[in-house]
Amino acid sequence: MKKLLFQWKWLVIVAGVSMSCTEGGEMDPDDPQQASNDLNFPYTLTTEENVYKMEIDGVEVTNTAEIANTLNVDKTITIGFWGPANDFAFGGIYWIPLGVGTYETGRNLGPGNGTNGNNLFMTAFVKKNNVKHFAYSAHEYGFLESEKIPGSSCTVKINKFEGKQTSFSFMNGTYSLFIGTVEGQFAGTFKTKDGQELKVTKGQFRIVQKLPPGATVNN
Question: How far apart are CA 21 and CA 74, in angstroms?
């Protein structure tokens, strides 16, 4: 029951609104962005569902991972990590491009919803001792120069991307959720605004989100 509640926490009711749906696929292989963190470690989450694990300064943390609903589901996915004591805001990677590929925080995704006319930049954060440490920026959308954090970064490799944002009807309601499977790896150097630093290594996640039994996909 608890796992079901985790999976549906980010579900947003969409009443009479048609959501934009984008299929996942390969990204441009000529993308010049270079990875700055080591992802050369085995991916081991082959059967688990909605799980992540990572090492924060050498200490392994594992719990639920999920794809959040955001204002930019037409071009990105955002992954949330639950932490100890089921802290649902323990960590996250915002604005990952749709599709298989290797991506770096700071990636410019162009104009985004919720940015007040500014561009959207990939960001990430994770907590240690209940303190948020950030990669690229402490600003969720990444465009504020004053919130950028020099020397911080996170690299994410999406190994599998199957699915899309899907509108469906269920129990007299209309909902929208990413339905499909996403597998990936990540690592990085995260910092606070005052310079405290932590290292995330051996990060990986496997998210499988399915339609609830009896749901009907809306065209």
Answer: 6
